[in-house]
Specification:
The protein is mainly α. It has 17 helices and no strands.
């Protein structure tokens, strides 16, 4: 065996890549004349230093779990689904239609239907690129990127011309009825008998974390079950490892391509349960906010495993939330700087992965020979 242990591949390699990314980020912060140690402490404090910070970090992480799982399922079938932005946007349309058209008496009834419609709309948007790849040979990367722009244009037309509330100037639908609003952290605190008046609970209760986080955790478990405990998951992984061997074993490339992309699109569409139904409580134009693209980095860093995706989503959720606090505390570190830090994490955990992996493999191989 000439490769490193599984634990080193899953945990050690991303950890070293992350340390390198933060080191280079520190050099960038130092270059603009700021203290990198102070910046790092503010970022960590802003992301996980309080219950309020955790509320926002977990809210952002929920979006990234859905989109990261979506990319991961496609990865297992050797497909690069870059259409998470468009699929999540279409999922938002499905969730909004359910919440606007039906007067739900309680969120317990609305949530399962919203989950179904969000997944269906996301899957439907992924179905066309999947068909073009399976039947026409069109590359999935090109078609999914194109469909992101088509989804954005379609959503603008529908929100502005069809779904916008009468007499309203801003491009958004009417607010959803109260029965379809998901419970947030404030509701759980009130259930425990804790009021939201006064500090620090007043700030905690403003965090948008909601029950969609539980839905995301359930999806992590279901994806693990699908990929590693079912025949379909075995076929998806076999096809991803070797299409020729899969075909020889009787696995249909068309079937696997379509099913994997439908599941991937459905998972991306589920992000709308958190962003549209859980936070905005209406459909607005930019509910995805780049989460589809961050999902690619989350899947890469998490090695396309649900546990890894969850941990990577937490990291990127912390970067988004901590970055917002960092931008506020140190004005010299702008939003663009935060994007640079995120890009460095993506660069070291994705494109430069072999820079860390290959020396580690040689080290473990040398240790085996010595032993």
């Amino acid at each position: 065996m000439d490769k490193m242990p599984r634990w080193a591949d899953v945990f050690l390699t991303p950890l070293i890549s992350l340390i390198l990314a933060f080191f280079v980020s520190g050099l960038v912060v130092l270059y603009i004349g700021e203290n990198p140690i102070e910046a790092l402490s503010i970022l960590i404090e802003g992301a996980v230093g309080s219950a309020y910070a955790w509320g926002y970090t977990l809210f952002y992480a929920t979006n990234f779990i859905f989109t990261g799982l979506a990319v991961s399922v496609a990865f297992h079938a050797r497909m690069f689904n870059i259409g998470g932005e468009g699929q999540a946007a279409m999922g938002g349309l499905g969730v909004a239609l359910v919440c606007l058209m039906i007067p739900w008496p309680h969120w317990i009834l609305a949530l399962p239907v919203a989950v179904i419609f969000g997944a269906l709309f996301g899957a439907a948007w992924a179905a066309i690129p999947a068909y073009l790849q399976a039947k026409r040979g069109s590359h999935i990367v090109i078609t999914t990127i194109m469909f992101n722009f088509i989804a954005a244009a379609l959503l603008v037309y529908l929100v502005v011309e069809v779904l916008k509330a009468p007499g309203q100037m801003s491009p958004e639908t009417a607010a959803f009825q109260e029965g379809s609003n998901l419970p947030k952290i404030a509701d759980f605190l009130r259930t425990l008998g804790l009021a939201c008046e006064g500090r620090p609970l007043e700030r905690v209760c403003r965090a948008p974390l909601n029950i969609a986080f539980i839905v995301a955790l359930v999806c992590c478990w279901l994806v693990w079950l699908l990929i590693w405990r079912t025949r379909l998951g075995y076929e998806i992984r076999s096809f991803g490892h070797s299409e020729e061997a899969a075909v020889y074993a009787g696995i249909s490339p068309v079937k696997i391509t379509m099913i994997a992309m439908l599941i991937s699109g459905g998972l991306a569409g589920l992000m709308a349960v958190n962003a549209v139904m859980g936070e905005a409580e209406r459909l607005v134009l930019d509910t995805v906010q780049g989460a589809g693209f961050i999902g690619i980095a989350v899947a890469l860093m998490g090695r396309s495993h649900p546990v890894g995706v969850f941990l990577a989503a937490l990291l990127f959720g912390a970067l988004v939330q901590g970055g917002a606090e960092l931008e506020f505390e140190i004005p010299a570190i702008t939003r663009d700087m935060i994007v640079v830090i995120q890009a460095l994490v993506i660069l070291f955990t994705g494109a430069l992965d072999n820079m860390v992996r290959m020396p580690l493999e040689r080290m473990f191989l040398a240790r085996r020979k010595v032993g």
